[in-house]
Design goal:
Blueprint lengths: L5 H4 L14 E7 L3 H9 L16 H15 L17 E4 L5 E7 L4 E8 L6 E8 L7 E2 L2 E2 L12 E2 L23 E6 L6 E16 L6 E15 L11 E3 L7 H7 L8 E6 L4 E6 L8 E4 L9 E9 L2 E11 L6 E3 L1 H12 L6 E2 L9 E3 L12 E5 L4 E4 L3 E6 L4 E7 L1 E3 L4 E2 L7 E6 L4 E6 L5
Parallel strand pairs: 2-9, 4-12, 5-11, 17-26, 18-25
Antiparallel strand pairs: 1-3, 1-10, 1-14, 3-4, 3-10, 6-7, 8-10, 9-10, 10-11, 13-14, 13-27, 15-28, 16-17, 16-21, 19-20, 20-24, 21-22, 23-24, 27-28
């Protein structure tokens, strides 16, 4: 029998009334939100993690987020082979930098962690049996004490051996012996920007709330990495308390929950992005009948990739066929040269404000606003997807504030010039995004994440 503490219940996600059955959910928070700032303050983490010197909406704030984006995508190769296997020596190339974090509970009695959420990563791991981990302490957040996962303290934990069918291998990987522990190594980034986590694969209970009128807490046995050794930025400002992989891989958390025969749940999940950094993550959510949808492209890196056929800005339609990654872990949407230029120039041609240059800002197309300006007419930005549905960015611009007076003096089109096409978090805000792995469909709908 698993035990569940009252203090953990207080920090579980608030349950939503829903007409869609068989959903399990949790809250998540933006890395620069008040919730996460309070936690990082209590653990003495550095300014790179918690940029207090960069007020929201200031030039410094956007510089900090752009730095995160560039770090995340540096050296990215989206077509590189197998992502992950549970065996010694096999490496996964994923990319550090996460925007959203959630409290998760593992073990009996439960141990709580603040883990990064990553739709581009397959593996769930937490610091454990630490030989080299990020600094943590017994400093508390509310009435919960954060710590590394302790195998021996959980009555339901078990290690996975190389002889187990749960230790996935491929032709390029081997265990040292059948009786040895199943091990993993996962790498993020490359060169001077590389980080890694390595350790053994374990199984224990993951706790979630049921998204129906009962609001019951359920616990599900799940595989995850016991991260014994972390390197690089994982020791200094990277996700200090673990990372939850949400990709379409068959070893990601959504897939493992769906494979569990003890519950009836589809291999699908949704993320709802609120404007202030609060969000909801619901496993088993297939969305609603009135949502917009498009097919997911087959992608060897397990990223969520869609096909777009038009870029529509205000009254201008640009016929442009291209693929784009939908990545909640990227702050700002970015596009390759020709698409970026068409979108930006179409937008600029339809605004009445004067275009200005702002020193240090990561955005190229910015427009001046006056203090007595009653309203601003912003051209809409949307994309026609394969199949005919329209994806609209509800908030295509970002406001720029004077950090001394806290007044807005400009706004910018929130896109960056990349060497790949990415629909990032700023284009997802205000919407419930459904990642249906089972049907290979991406769904979306404007949504009140707080109701």
């Amino acid at each position: 029998m698993a035990f569940y503490s009252v203090s953990v219940l207080l920090f579980l996600a608030a349950v939503l009334s829903s007409c869609y059955a068989h959903k399990l959910g949790m809250d998540f928070h933006h890395r620069f939100s008040d919730k996460v700032r309070e936690w990082t303050d209590s653990h003495g983490l550095p300014p790179a993690w918690n940029p207090e010197e960069a007020p929201h909406g200031s030039v410094e704030y956007y510089q900090a987020l752009l730095k995160h984006d560039l770090h995340r995508h540096r050296g990215r190769s989206l077509a590189s082979g197998e992502l992950y296997a549970f065996a010694r020596g096999n490496k996964t190339y994923e990319y550090l930098g996460n925007l959203h974090y959630a409290y998760v509970d593992l073990g009996s009695p439960s141990q709580i962690f603040l883990v990064a959420l990553d739709t581009g990563s397959p593996l769930f791991w937490v610091p454990c049996n630490c030989k080299q981990c990020a600094p943590t302490s017994d400093s508390s957040y509310g009435n919960i004490t954060f710590r590394n996962y302790n195998l021996s303290a959980s009555t339901t934990s078990k290690t996975i051996s190389c002889s187990s069918s749960q230790c996935f291998t491929d032709s390029s990987t081997k265990c040292s012996s059948k009786t040895a522990d199943c091990t993993y190594t996962i790498e993020y980034g490359s060169g001077n920007y590389s980080s890694s986590s390595s350790g053994i694969i374990v199984q224990d209970y993951l706790y979630l709330t049921k998204e129906d009128s009962t609001s019951n807490v359920v616990y599900i046995p799940i595989l995850f990495g016991c991260g014994e050794v972390q390197t690089g930025d994982l020791l200094n400002g990277g996700p200090p308390n673990g990372l939850m992989g949400l990709s379409s891989s068959n070893i990601s958390v959504p897939s493992m929950i769906a494979y569990n025969k003890a519950i009836s749940i589809t291999n699908s999940f949704s993320m709802c992005f609120g404007k202030d950094g609060y969000g909801r993550l619901n496993f088993g959510d297939v969305g609603s009948k009135d949502q917009n949808e498009t097919s997911l492209n087959s992608n060897p890196s397990a990223h969520y990739n869609i096909s777009l056929t038009e870029v529509v800005v205000g009254t201008t339609t640009n016929k442009l066929s291209f693929n784009a990654i939908v990545d909640s872990g990227t702050s700002y949407s970015g596009f390759t040269d020709s698409i970026y230029l068409k979108l930006a120039t179409s937008f600029s041609a339809q605004v009445s404000e004067q275009r200005i240059n702002i020193s240090g800002i990561p955005f190229e197309y910015c427009f001046e606003t006056s203090a007595n300006q009653a309203n601003t007419k912003i051209p809409s930005v949307s994309f026609a997807t394969q199949g005919g549905s329209t994806f609209r960015a509800l908030y295509p611009t970002v406001p720029i504030y004077d950090e001394n007076t806290n007044t807005q003096f400009a706004y910018c089109l929130g896109i960056i010039q990349y060497d790949i096409n990415i629909i990032g978090e700023n284009f997802l805000v205000g919407q419930r995004i459904v990642f249906d792995i089972e049907k290979q469909v991406l769904g979306w709908k404007p949504y009140n994440c707080y109701s």
